[in-house]
Automatic annotation (TrEMBL):
Organism ancestry: Bacteria, Bacillati, Bacillota, Clostridia, Eubacteriales
Descriptive protein name: Class I SAM-dependent methyltransferase
Gene3D superfamilies: Vaccinia Virus protein VP39
Domain Methyltransferase residues, every copy: 55-160
UniProtKB keywords: Methyltransferase, S-adenosyl-L-methionine, Transferase
Length: 274
């Protein structure tokens, strides 16, 4: 069994309507996070160092969120198409790029899983197909679609390890095992699948830590989703625990993550075999 087959076997089925609601609920939070300066962003630095982004470059931003990277690409003179499953995220993307040249960007609500490349005119159209921390890249079909849409490079990133203090405590309370291995699987399978296909993806990783403060209601909604709490008893258990940990309705959480990035040229099949 090759890595593509193993990834298909491992892949979890997702409810896109539930996913849309989850990201709609978190759009305002991600919009605030996205307002940080991009001057020293390591991903932008990597893409610049390899001349992958340049004035006039066509970029597809999959899971563009509130438009943090889309805006940076636009400011560098790229032509950008940003797609996301969340209408609220797309609204923020449009708002955050309102002062830029509208001839150079398009934002639309579109799950990558449902994107029809031929109908959109996206077959081999983009210089860079970009998916930063996007859950939409969840299996072989989504990676193959990235390759089909690109005439230059593809970039994807994902958590390798993601730990948060409250989440770890809640998993103990609910007798759940750590899900860290689930995060590592995405890039593990993607890298090996690409290698078996004949590509030579570059791999990098980075460490990140931040303190997050949010209200109990938002925290409860988040952890109910992440811990797959579907019954009323488990949901109540989560909310009771968060209430005990809160101070005036606010929860302080410490998030640590090790993130990985894959970058590959879709031309490497021809170039590297000469």
């Amino acid at each position: 069994m090759n890595f593509e087959e193993r990834w298909i076997e491992k892949k979890k089925q997702t409810d896109l309507s539930e996913t849309q609601q989850f990201w709609d609920n978190r759009a305002a939070e991600f919009n605030e996070i996205g307002k940080r300066q991009m001057d020293d962003d390591p991903v932008i630095a990597l893409l610049k160092s390899k001349d992958i982004i340049f004035p006039g470059a066509r970029v597809l931003d999959i899971g563009c969120g509130a438009g943090r990277y889309s805006k940076a690409f636009l400011e560098m003179g790229c032509e950008v198409v940003g797609i996301d499953i969340s209408p609220n995220m797309i609204d923020f993307s449009k708002e955050n790029t309102a002062g830029l040249n509208t001839d150079h960007f398009t934002f639309k609500v579109l799950p990558w899983e449902q994107a029809d490349l031929a109908a959109e005119g996206w077959e081999g159209y983009f210089d860079l197909v970009f998916a930063s921390m996007s859950p939409a890249i969840s299996g072989p079909d989504e990676v193959r679609k990235m390759i089909r849409a690109s005439k230059g490079y593809c970039f994807m990133s994902s958590h390798l390890i993601k730990e948060d203090k409250i989440g770890t405590e809640l998993r103990t309370v609910l007798n759940q095992e750590s899900r860290a291995a689930d995060y590592r699987d995405t890039l593990y399978y993607a890298f090996n699948m690409l290698w078996e296909m004949g590509y030579f993806p570059e791999f990098r990783n980075s460490d990140n830590q931040r303190v997050k403060v949010w209200n109990v209601e938002k925290a409860a909604n988040y952890y109910e989703h992440m811990l797959r709490a579907t019954d009323a008893e488990t949901k109540q258990e989560i909310r009771d625990y968060l209430d005990k940990k809160s101070d005036k309705g606010q929860i302080e959480d410490v998030n640590y993550s090790k993130n990985g990035q894959l970058l590959w040229s879709v031309q490497s099949l021809q170039t590297d075999r000469r």
